[in-house]
Amino acid sequence: MLDVKFIRENVDLVEKSTKEKGYDINIKELLKLDDKRKAILVEVEDLRRRRNEIAGKMKGGKPSDKLIAEGKAVKEELSEKEQALASAEAEVNELLKRVPNVIFEDVPLGGEECSVEVKKWGKNHTKGVDHLDYATSRDWVDFERGAKVAGAKFYYLKDGLALLENALLQYGLSKVLEHGFTFMTVPDMVSSRVLEGCGFNPRSSEQSDEYFIEGEDLAMIATAEMPLTGYHMDEIIDEDKLPLFYAGYSPCFRKEAGAAGKYTRGLFRVHQFNKLEMYAFCLPEQSKEIHEKILAIEEEIWQGLEVPYHVINIAAGDLGAPAAKKYDMEYWSPVNQKYQEITSCSNCTDFQARACNVRVRRKDGTVEFVHTLNGTAIPLARALVVMLENFATVDGKFRVPKALRPYLNGKQEL
Q1: Does domain 112-407 have CATH number 1.50.10.10?
Q2: I need a surface site. Which of 124, 245, 289, 365 has the fewest CB within 10 A?
Q3: Among all residues, which ones are annotated catalytic?
Q4: At residue 394, what are phi and psi to the nearest 5 degrees?
Q5: pTM, 2 dp
Q6: Which residues pair with 220 in a beta bridge?
Q7: Which CATH class is domain 4-98?
Q8: Region(s) of the chain under CATH 3.30.930.10
Q9: Average pLDDT over residues 402-411
């Protein structure tokens, strides 16, 4: 959520960012509503002052009928104005929730096709094995029984693939721990306040990606970023404790309502998968540097797995509401002969912290909102696709990457 004062002082910037991100929101109408809210607030404060003055006059003796009548009239008018104020505040807040974060100056403008490659690593392979055909042939994955018990795009992992998933998790965890992250398991559900605080507001209701619990103020998480964002909700953190680095492991649940036209084969895009997520709370002046640090860790992880990739600076039209800037890392798919997304990392500045009320107390006593960042360490279902495409052999074997062998009892093949 943006500060309405910031919006008022930077109308052109906010309007431009909102438009570039593809959101249809009337910023000037929002400010008119806020003007209305402020005018009602002035009236409410004046009526409260009059109420208190009348209450003071009534002390120490029998009040006159005129004073009693005046007090009653003020009380009734104040009640009406307070209701109007509550309504105006709700209207302003509802619009504020829809305004996306402002983009950084170095974010490319345009749609998905305008994202810019910023680095590249590894030699692209020309031959690979289709992950679904391979895993099915070895009885390592079962989508049919997954569909029987839960519906399409749910699955069972078995034998070698289940062991490989565990090895990937252990490998990724070892990397983030080396870089000072605190490992956490997190709740699999969050409240609507946390969900909205994270900024996961779809451009339309048809794009909502979360599974909601009927009759409860809860939704299944789409990423550990959600409960991690809420971890310090309504807290003030001392400056000398920042930055804080967390690594959250969780299942992720997604309808993938906005996945039309995306690559969906097999494990690449499913309704439930496990993921290890990096998250940081930091001082505003630290966030750009930490964004690069998180990206560097992601690169270290995938270089260790010997997987070719490139990194792209995501264009404004493909950014979600919370991010001021986002990098995507895309691996080279030897099967599809193109780059496909494997991880991302975002700098959300104070957008999420403002909505979740996460602040820092500076050494001089002043209080302000922190910045939050997130980045994927290992998205396990998609990582399995990458491993099988790159290391499964045509003769039905799987060559275990050196980095994963310590987590598979030293096996070189599965």
Answers
A1: no
A2: 365
A3: 254, 269, 341, 344, 382
A4: -65, -20
A5: 0.92
A6: 189
A7: mainly alpha
A8: 112-407
A9: 97
